[in-house]
């Protein structure tokens, strides 16, 4: 029998409290772990006493007016809904009335009132067990204001209720209407968490000050499920072991003094933060900590999210002879289990099946035909953004529903047939082995078909999982099988992802994973090629407790990789410049500098159009495999002014694509071209291919070089 964890005793305090419709949580088998799992053997008190793992504190969204607190607004997060905004806010206890905001078009005129609904779940531990009222959230409130003007700033205030303090007068700005011209920038981030993400956070705040319209976080949000980092000793293959054996940090940065502070007696060196595992030793407190940190963003701009694997449950995996299994399954602290027997039922019910994720955000799934926070879409100006669930709800998804545990035989597996991350489905499924029968896929088909490319020429999709990477993994084939053909067929321009904890820009790739060489203008500029290829960015470098991903010893990046950086943390700025140009840039958390940038251009967008069919002129480098005429059609030769960050000098070369795996110089007509660079680089400062000519005005038919790169 499936029952909802939201079925808590709410008492008379709440007015309209909705139980979450999905996901529900299965409790067919009892939970046998500790009442409150705490990732600290020395101090397993949920409140902590600061001895071993001092609890980190982030300010609440609303500064309370009283010392004798009973309730407080700790988190406020904005998100877009069509023609409006959703104001989500969080309190430890109920409001005793429907949540509301007073709002208006100026800060001193809040004459309108909007009301909404509240929801909750049976979090472990409940906020009644947490002594700091300003550091816990268990009741979640949604107030929508719709029918608003686009690109307009409104003001609002959350009134006091049941012990809370009224918020300050805050503001939000509605989305630019679809089809309205004009440059805009958004922040795209993935795999953030709290530890290691300080630089990213700082630059994100700066991005808001610089005018970023919204943030889009593609999964692996708070890393709440790493609550147990403080009780699992370092493994040899972990890149960093804090307060233990490692004296190196990713990026080679100076080691802060706190990293060298010896751990208190009894604590184990681990993958946790500077003081050990002090990201937090509680699953739910990690969520609270992170969300309160992000108030600096989410109270100012819409903070859009999609699911990642770290949102699924209280843990992901474990091996034999491990501490976590003994703790969660047998309620034995500081012990080991002979073998891994973690199942779906090993987590407290409230920490299964994306429960916290579903409550702690409010995305426009319902309003856009999608499902909750799992998949949805929205427009902003010249772009259509598609958020997909790369974790569940497609064939061979990385996390999966019970029907797959039983191989389709029945819906209810035995306890041992389940896995700790079993999740979903969040939509309907007719045949779990066939993605086309999934509600998510059907929705995507419809969503793509409904795009008006005259209004939103740019279409950007994101899931948490990459389709391709130099770090190859089997889930990538499943994601490709589910979505790749559909996205390419419909001319999606960019596919963003995370999951792998580095920045990796790929060459534009066709649906077979081949490099679309004719679409490479130079190292930092691609043509879009609707129906043929997409640009892929793996953007998983925001921070997080698990540190960077790395290549194995002796491993080289694949040839599909144009840029790979596993030394810096940061995020990406996505800038839509106009209907034919956009850019993606990697902003380094350490100083805000740009680590990499690629500009995407649409062909045939200018006042005239021409097709080059000139014979290719081969680079002289012997390592070039072959060359063919590119036949690129482009029309911007006479009118295009490259943005200042496009460094090539080939603006009048209308059909020039070069992919040279080595340094070379060659002559074409009266011009001499130098091509320098390496095929990939680990640092961002090296340009792959730099092209220069001794003239800025090539009047003869331009050289057309398309050098076929080897298949990955
Ligand atoms: Fe991930």
UniProtKB/TrEMBL annotation:
**Residue limits of the Fibronectin type-III domain?**
81-177
Q: Which UniProt keywords apply?
A: Glycoprotein, Hydrolase, Signal
Signal sequence extent = 1-19
- Tell me the protein family, please: Belongs to the metallophosphoesterase superfamily. Purple acid phosphatase family.
Query: Which CDD domains does the record match to this protein?
Result: MPP_PAPs
Task: Tell me what organism the protein belongs to.
Answer: Oidiodendron maius (strain Zn)
> Under the GO molecular function aspect, what terms does this record hold?
acid phosphatase activity; metal ion binding
Against InterPro entries, the record matches this protein to: Acid_Pase_Asper, Calcineurin-like_PHP, FN3_dom, Metallo-depent_PP-like, MPP_PAP, PAPs-like, PAPs_C, PAPs_N
* Phylogenetic classification of the source organism: Eukaryota, Fungi, Dikarya, Ascomycota, Pezizomycotina
- Full protein name: Purple acid phosphatase
Quote the EC number.
Answer: 3.1.3.2
Asked if the keyword Ligase belongs to this entry, the reply reads: no
Q: Could you tell me the superkingdom of the organism this chain comes from? A: Eukaryota
> What Pfam families does this protein's entry cite?
Metallophos (PF00149), Metallophos_C (PF14008), Pur_ac_phosph_N (PF16656)
Q: Which catalytic reaction applies to this protein?
A: a phosphate monoester + H2O = an alcohol + phosphate
